[in-house]
């Protein structure tokens, strides 16, 4: 099959690449060849062509951090900082997912919305409930999206109706992982200790063992000042928050790397360890604004060669649109430069576009670029209303990246399969 349109992506050197009126030749799930419209070899003339004419075709985006059960209250309760927000809004909502009827209704809404977004790949927290987590994974598998999903672990400092004993947590995690084996093609389990305050030392060490060389691990790191202080008290043996995870065997080398959300208060030593342990940072700018968490030192991460993608962090962030997160990251980086560190050059549009596409996509393999050999994840976008009267395609693209909410999604492909 051949898909035709204006191709927009990012090169491996981080520049925005625009190829007008081009053809993507798909073979199974992968981009096999790309040709200019007038250079298509005649041998392909009988191939089925889907012509999107003047539409813009972008790579699928990766959301590196979000909470599926929190989708139901996004945009509500944005008046607190992290720890109060968790106790007041989040834990009571997550407790409801013990009820499978509730979970089914809420997760149906979530999966439908994620399907309609620009996201093709996501790394997701569920709740501590094994059955509801499996339900969510079944729905995501059916949607055609490709996701890592974690049954959350939490055995301390929670409410009575949202807590497991250490043994229950380990047992349910093992059962869940066994259940997932051979059940899914495109949905992958990921080990998910909520954060250090929610997980005893013993639980973290057990999860590190379960992770072994086989699974990825996701969690939260250095998000909020009170949280960071609390972790210091909980882990007096450790030099810092990430070091506490490390000392509890959570960061060992595995087939899939570790993803840590936030990293707002990571100091030099923590950054070094992030790099050493090949940890992926999920930068969540909208969440960091909404919970008054702070501004992550993203320029420093990039300068140190730490991989950084974006997370919507629903429901601390309110929008599933990763283009919006990318633009907010530029804004925050400008404030960081103005108020905190004059040596920290603000992020540029091409950089955040790369982070949202090929940098974050690399967690899934060759994903996030319109390039030969990459899995064919694409969003086809109609920007006619937004860009009425603008002919210069560079301007159309720049404007789209900022105002993507005002465009319509004509089609979306994940690994070559059209899902909308
Ligand atoms: N830290 C621990 N749990 C959470 C959560 O659900 N959301 C955010 N933003 N931070 C957390
Ligand atoms: Fe989060």
UniProtKB/TrEMBL annotation:
Residues 57-389 form the Amidohydrolase-related domain. The keyword Hydrolase applies. One of its GO terms (molecular function) is guanine deaminase activity. Its cofactor is Zn(2+). The keyword Transcription does not apply. Keywords: Hydrolase, Metal-binding, Zinc. It comes from the Bacteria. Signal peptide: none annotated. One of its GO terms (cellular component) is cytosol. One of its GO terms (biological process) is guanine metabolic process. InterPro entries: Amidohydro-rel, Metal-dep_hydrolase_composite, Metal_Hydrolase, Metallo-dep_hydrolases. This is Putative guanine deaminase.
């Amino acid at each position: 099959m051949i898909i035709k349109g204006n191709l927009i992506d990012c090169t491996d050197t981080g520049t925005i690449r625009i190829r007008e009126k081009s053809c993507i030749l798909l073979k199974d799930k992968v981009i096999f060849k790309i040709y200019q419209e007038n250079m298509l070899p005649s041998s392909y003339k009988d191939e089925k062509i889907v012509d999107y004419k003047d539409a813009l075709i972008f790579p699928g985006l990766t959301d590196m951090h979000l909470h599926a059960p929190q989708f139901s209250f996004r945009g509500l309760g944005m008046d607190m900082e992290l720890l109060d927000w968790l106790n007041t809004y989040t834990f009571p909502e997550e407790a409801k997912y013990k009820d499978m009827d509730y979970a089914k209704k809420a997760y149906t809404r979530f999966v439908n919305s994620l399907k309609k977004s620009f996201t093709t790949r996501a790394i997701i927290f569920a709740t501590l409930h094994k059955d509801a987590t499996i339900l969510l994974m079944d729905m995501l598998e059916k949607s055609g999206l490709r996701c890592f999903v974690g049954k959350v672990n939490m055995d301390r400092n929670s409410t009575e109706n949202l807590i497991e004993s250490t043994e229950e947590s380990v047992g349910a995690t093992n059962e869940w992982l066994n259940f997932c084996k051979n059940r899914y093609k495109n949905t992958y389990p990921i080990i998910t200790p909520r954060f250090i305050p929610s997980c005893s030392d013993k639980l973290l060490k057990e999860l590190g063992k379960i992770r072994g060389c086989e699974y990825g691990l996701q969690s939260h790191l250095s998000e909020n000042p009170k949280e960071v202080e609390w972790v210091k008290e909980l882990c007096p043996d450790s030099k810092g928050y990430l070091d506490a995870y490390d000392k509890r065997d959570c960061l060992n080398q595995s087939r899939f790397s570790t993803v840590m959300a936030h990293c707002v208060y990571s100091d030099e030593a923590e950054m070094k360890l992030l790099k050493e342990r090949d940890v992926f940072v999920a930068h969540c700018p909208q969440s960091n604004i909404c919970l008054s968490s702070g501004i992550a030192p993203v320029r420093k991460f990039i300068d140190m060669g730490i991989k950084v993608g974006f997370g919507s962090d629903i429901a601390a962030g309110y929008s599933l649109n990763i283009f919006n997160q990318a633009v907010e990251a530029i804004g925050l980086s400008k404030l960081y430069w103005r108020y905190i560190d004059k040596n920290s050059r603000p992020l540029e549009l091409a950089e955040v576009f790369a982070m949202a596409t090929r940098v974050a996509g690399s967690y899934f393999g060759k994903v996030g670029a319109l390039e030969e050999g990459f899995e064919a994840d694409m969003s086809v976008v109609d920007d006619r209303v937004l860009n009425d009267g603008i002919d210069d395609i560079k301007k159309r693209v720049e404007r789209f990246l900022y105002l993507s909410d005002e465009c319509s999604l004509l089609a979306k492909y994940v690994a070559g399969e059209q899902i909308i």
